[in-house]
Amino acid sequence: AEQYLTNVCWSPDNKYIFIAIVNSAQNHMWLNQYNANTGDFVKTLFEETDERYVEPQHAMVFVKNNPNQFVWWSERDGYNHLYLYDISGQLIRQLTKGNWVVTEVNGFDKTGNTLFYTSTISSPTERQFSSVNIKTGVSTQLTTVAGTHSVLLSSEGDYFIDHLQNINTPREISVVSANGKKRTNILTAPNPLVDYNIGSTEIGSLVNSDGVQLYYRIIKPAGFDANKKYPVVVYLYNGPHIQLVNNTWLGGGNLWMQYMAQKGYVVFTIDGRGSMNRGHAFESAVFRQLGTLEMADQMAGVNYLKTLPYIDGNRMGIHGWSFGGFMTTTMMTRQPGTFKVGVAGGPVIDWGLYEIMYTERYMDTPEENPEGYKTANLLNYIKDLKGNLLMIHGGEDDVVLWQHSLLYVEKAIKENVQMDYFVYPHHPHNVSGKDRVHLMDKISRYLMANL
Fold first, then answer.
1. Looking at 81, 397, 404, 444, which residue is catalytic?
2. Where are the beta strands (DSSP E) in 157-281?
């Protein structure tokens, strides 16, 4: 009863079903084979364990033209890589290796001997396309231009369509031969913002107090003057499975951030520990203590900003949604006085009230980790709130239940702490459609009124 059934797939002949079974503690995985007609257990192909957690996210990929072999994704060596197995569960070889992660399996060539994949081999902020010979394990990088390559492979693997973006390139689309040597450009998109007065976007990195490299994005105001002092808006998420800073068009930022830059704000984002595509140690460092190391890494970003001569360190605001709402509230109360204003959307307040599989993967159970849950529970810090906090929630939120922020408001009233609150009655976890214009206007007005 206490288990999760994940990454289900069929054998090529449809006679068997393969399921990655994960125990309740999520630190042990069994890749099991079952008879598709009877449901009977056949065998366990192999197992994986980890002292923190295992998180299989992809079903087996059977080798083209060879139903007796398959490719498995695993973080067992610390980074998400590809492993070749035979159908008995015997490891043949590790196909990819290095201090980088595979982010996508794109397919095989017509022989099945070459597997194509996308990875962070050049940089955590980039995506490059490569191939690997599954018989030798030798990889060849097929794209080299800095940026993010989104690839569509042809059915026989003899060519691919390469969608390239980087911080200065909206989009270039090319048709490329499978060996990467013949390239035909079919579209170079013009800059859609050429007629707008937007700020400049830069991607950089810094090293935190623990010696860990962190990547950030900084957007300077339109008409930037290095002799002026500018207020700052920090936009953050800093939670699992999200990476905000990418070498894509505008550095992964959006037009709301450019709007705030037009209004004279520096907009800053940093991906701290716990965020994705940096390897298991980086992502799982927050195990049993959600919010604590993330807070430290956000403060590393704040401290960096304060070294910049054009930053007004006394006029800093912060905004995030979901895990970012949790982090916004964390920063406003566990680092009181750092930010003058915060806007927290759909925030997790008490991890004991959040979805079980997600929470227990990163926190264990409340019984196993009472101190961790207590430390992360934002109800315990309401008295420490300084500055202006606006909390926003969807009345039909089925991800972070409305209960979270209502409990926060109730506790604030009991503690005689003033805060602001707004509800979108008929919206789920995110406010979409035309009402999103209202949402972004409200966030912008609140930040500008208090900074």
1. 397
2. 159-166, 169-177, 183-188, 201-207, 213-219, 230-235, 266-271
Task: Provide φ and ψ at 65, rounded to 5°.
Answer: 70, 5
| Closest to 359 (Cα-Cα) out of 410, 302, 404 | 404
* pLDDT single digits (tens) 365-400: 999 999 999 999 999 999 999 999 999 999 999 999
Could you tell me the maximum CA-CA distance found in the chain, to the nearest angstrom? 74
Tell how far CA 61 is from the center of its chain.
24
Q: Strand, helix or coil at 216?
A: strand
Whether residue 297 lies in the annotated active site: no
Give residue-wise pLDDT tens across range 126-150: 999 999 999 999 999 999 999 999 9
Beta strands (DSSP E) in 57-155 are 61-63, 66-74, 81-86, 91-94, 102-108, 114-119, 128-133, 139-141, 148-153
Q: Any catalytic annotation for residue 284? A: no
What global pTM score does this model have? Answer: 0.96
d(CA 274, CA 53): 13
Q: What count of other Cβ atoms lies within 10 Å of the Cβ of residue 13? A: 8
Helical ranges in 216-287 per DSSP H: 255-262, 280-284
Neighbour-count burial of 34, counting CB atoms closer than 10 A to its CB (0-12 exposed, 13-18 middle, 19+ buried): middle
Residues near 69 by beta carbon (within 8 Å), at least 6 away in sequence: 62, 63, 84, 85, 86, 87, 92, 134
Q: Which of 322, 404, 427, 444 is catalytic?
A: 322
> CA–CA separation, 110 vs 159, rounded Å?
11
**397 among known catalytic residues:** yes
* Total number of residues shown for the chain: 451
